[in-house]
Design goal:
The structure holds two protein chains of two kinds.
Chain A: E1 4-8, E2 11-13, E3 20-22, H1 24-36, E4 39-46, H2 53-57, E5 63-68, H3 76-86, E6 90-94, H4 106-114, E7 118-128, E8 131-137, E9 143-149, E10 152-156, H5 168-173, E11 175-180, E12 192-195, H6 211-219, E13 227-230, H7 234-247
Parallel strand pairs in A: 1-4, 1-6, 4-5, 5-11, 6-10, 7-10
Antiparallel strand pairs in A: 2-3, 7-8, 8-9
Helix pairs in contact in A: 3-4
Chain B: H1 26-38, H2 52-56, E1 76-77, E2 85-89, H3 99-114, E3 118-124, E4 138-142, H4 149-163, E5 167-171, H5 177-188, E6 193-199, E7 204-208, E8 213-217, E9 222-225, E10 237-238, E11 241-242, E12 255-260, E13 275-279, H6 286-296, E14 299-302, H7 304-308, E15 329-333, H8 339-344, E16 350-355, H9 361-365, E17 368-371, H10 374-390
Parallel strand pairs in B: 1-10, 2-3, 2-5, 3-4, 4-11, 5-9, 6-9, 13-14, 13-15, 15-16, 16-17
Antiparallel strand pairs in B: 6-7, 7-8
Helix pairs in contact in B: 4-5, 6-10
The chains are: A alpha/beta, B alpha/beta.
């Protein structure tokens, strides 16, 4: 089947050591693409001499196209130009970059400029005839089924299956295909960058108007506003539990 | 020494000389009150006895200590002529405000108060929540059923066009507000502040660079706010005046929502689970327990005792030495509620307990507590849940 998958790859950074590596979500996107089969166009816009690009090649790629772009410039125009040339059926990418502001805007700008549907936070993909079936990752391990026409842009979330290991020999064998492109406009850096300050998790929200209420909230055990049933018949108890679960919307989709 | 030799101080009225200010006589002013009771009973010396009790007036009943002071009637805060508008777009997952949504409305409230403005909340018209107590001065209730990010983005764009808000706030959730917000940003061609971790009227701090840096800038128009960035708005009731739904441009819908997939609840880590059915020492009927968890589509959890005995795998343990879980609902069978276990379920929104001991800590914590044997309730509940699934 003539499936052309473009996977947009960026350079990640290890959170602890700060060394360059393959970006986690981009590697997951490549993993989904490798599992789908078809022709894969791995594309990176940036510096072709970055050694971390070899990590992607080690996942089983023959070639990786690099659109040469200087640092700090907008890569969207170059990517749009390249993607209109190769016309892929599917564009896969991670949800946000691991370096720089990482706004996660790039797939949205691409989808807008190429006029394609965008499926966010995807954890799994399957092809169904000419349609794309995607599993969207929701909080608390839930998954939503989505269907869209091809071509489409898909962003891949942390919930997607982990990427395979990078094989050293394959990484050495793979070729980097350099494409020269006019540099995009420089993105103005308005924001001041400071080291991230860890934020403690909020423990409890006190919303009390008077001091007496605050004292009660601080000292009292957090008791349920609860209903209590003492020695009910089993059926009645089960009915009460089920009614509660239904009324609170817990059983939706179960 | 006899009494009549003693010099007496005459109490007489001092008449102020003419042309000066008349002097007040406070004693004379008090006289009528004291005189009423003292008049009948003059003292042996002929002096008028003071009666402080009568002077104070009739005794009041003591204030009731255990009765709370009457609450002032809840006042609705009205912002009539706002200097600016702040548009908040909560996720309204399942038609309810999550705690993240409330934090978002709190952030919007803070920006609005700083600019003497009003908060406009965009909500689904099938919303089950009272947006007026969540800090909204205005509300736009539109049709937002199902998952349709393209429609929602078009609706937000229409609201921005109609209201010209100073800021538009979205929850930074990958499949919710973060997605819709980025669609809006791409359509407007604006650079948003993503993943805002700290927010004030003058500065927004966006976490970026793989979580290693904060990017500080004056808040731009579009803000994607992380959870716990601001405290939720107070209890004060706001007006939530309904605004008309702006006319939305036609969108061509290219994403089809095919519903929530049935996933194996035990395949996801316990900390991520949405609904946990948990067993403690009071459970002896283990096939019955597994059956009820399967019938309800819930993940299985257990107390330390249960995992120590090997009745459930170790990764299913809830509590201080297991996982700290935060499901939407936690159903506990036969768990007494040791402090270490209650620590593990501190963040659960709703807790249900089935226990034989009326005085168990778990029963105190529960929103619905049933004093019964788990072995009798579990099969009945499994049967009812299966019937419900087979039914309409």
């Amino acid at each position: 089947m003539g499936l052309d998958i473009a996977v947009l790859l960026s350079i990640g950074r290890h959170p602890a050591s700060g060394r360059s590596r393959r970006a986690e979500n981009d590697a997951r996107a490549l993993e989904l693409a490798l599992n789908l089969g078809g022709r894969i166009h791995a594309i990176h816009a940036g510096d072709p001499d970055e050694p971390a690009l070899r990590d992607y090649l080690g996942m089983g790629l023959e070639t990786l196209s690099v659109l040469r772009q200087p640092a700090e410039c907008d890569v969207v125009p170059a990517l749009v130009r390249h993607l209109t040339l190769i016309r892929p059926t599917l564009i896969l990418t991670g949800s946000a970059a691991e370096q720089g502001p990482g706004s996660g805007m790039l797939p949205y700008l691409l989808a807008r400029q190429l006029d394609l549907p965008l499926l966010p936070a995807t954890a799994g993909l399957a092809l169904n005839g000419g349609l794309l079936d995607a599993l969207q990752a929701l909080p608390r391990g839930r998954r939503r089924q989505l269907r869209a026409d091809l071509p489409a842009v898909v962003t891949v979330d942390r919930a997607a299956p982990a990427a395979r290991q990078s094989a050293y020999a394959q990484a050495r064998r793979g070729a980097i295909d350099l494409i020269d492109m006019a540099a995009g406009p420089i993105i103005p850096a308005d924001a001041r960058e400071v080291a991230a300050r860890p934020r403690p998790r909020r423990l409890k929200v006190m919303s009390a108007a008077t001091a007496a209420e605050r004292l009660r909230a601080a000292t009292e055990m957090q008791a349920g506003r609860g209903k209590l049933m003492v020695d009910p018949p089993a059926d009645e108890a089960a009915r009460a539990i089920l009614d509660y679960l239904v009324s609170e919307g817990i059983l939706i989709g179960r | 020494m006899s009494g009549d030799k003693r010099p007496r101080i005459e109490r007489r009225r001092v008449v102020s000389p003419p042309g000066t200010r008349p002097r007040r006589d406070p004693r004379a002013e008090r006289q009528p009150l004291a005189a009423a009771s003292a008049a009948q009973e003059p003292s042996t010396t002929g002096r008028i006895r003071r009666d402080p009790r009568a002077a104070r007036g009739p005794a009041k009943p003591p204030a009731a200590m255990d009765q709370p002071a009457p609450k002032p009637a809840a006042q609705t805060i009205v912002v009539d002529d706002p200097a600016c508008l702040i548009l908040a777009v909560p996720d309204f997952e399942d038609g309810r405000l999550s705690s993240h949504d409330r934090d978002l409305l709190g952030a919007a409230r803070m920006l609005a108060d700083a600019g003497k403005g009003a908060v406009v909340a965009l909500m689904p018209n099938a919303g089950k929540e009272d947006i007026a107590t969540a800090g909204a001065d205005r509300a736009i209730a539109a049709d937002m059923s199902g998952y349709a990010p393209e429609t929602k983005a078009a609706l937000v764009l229409a609201c921005i066009e109609a209201l010209q808000p100073r800021h538009i706030l979205f929850c930074e959730t990958p499949a919710g507000g973060g997605d819709v917000g980025r669609r809006v940003a791409a359509a407007l061609g604006e650079i948003p502040a993503p993943h805002v971790m700290r927010l004030s009227a003058g500065e927004a701090a966006s976490r970026g660079n793989g979580g290693r840096s904060d990017y500080l800038q004056p808040p731009p128009r579009l803000l994607f706010v992380a959870a716990e960035t601001a405290d939720p708005p107070g209890e004060a009731r706001r007006e939530a005046r309904a605004l008309p739904v702006p006319k939305v441009a036609a969108v061509d819908l290219r994403i089809e929502d095919r519903g929530i997939a049935a996933t194996d609840p035990n395949a996801v880590p316990l900390t991520e689970a949405d609904f946990i059915v948990s067993a403690g020492n009071g459970v002896t009927d283990w096939p019955g327990f597994h059956e009820v968890a399967a019938a309800l589509g819930a993940a299985e959890g257990g107390s330390r005792v249960v995992c120590d005995t090997g009745l459930l795998p170790r990764e299913r343990q809830v509590g201080a030495s297991g996982s700290l879980v935060e499901p939407r609902c936690y159903l506990a069978f036969g768990i007494a509620g040791a402090p270490q276990h209650l620590q593990g379920i501190l963040r659960c929104e709703r807790v249900l307990a089935v226990n034989t001991d009326l005085h168990a800590e778990m029963v105190k914590r529960a929103d619905l507590a049933i004093i019964a044997d788990a072995q009798s309730v579990m099969p009945a509940l499994a049967r009812l849940a299966r019937d419900r699934r087979r039914g309409p």
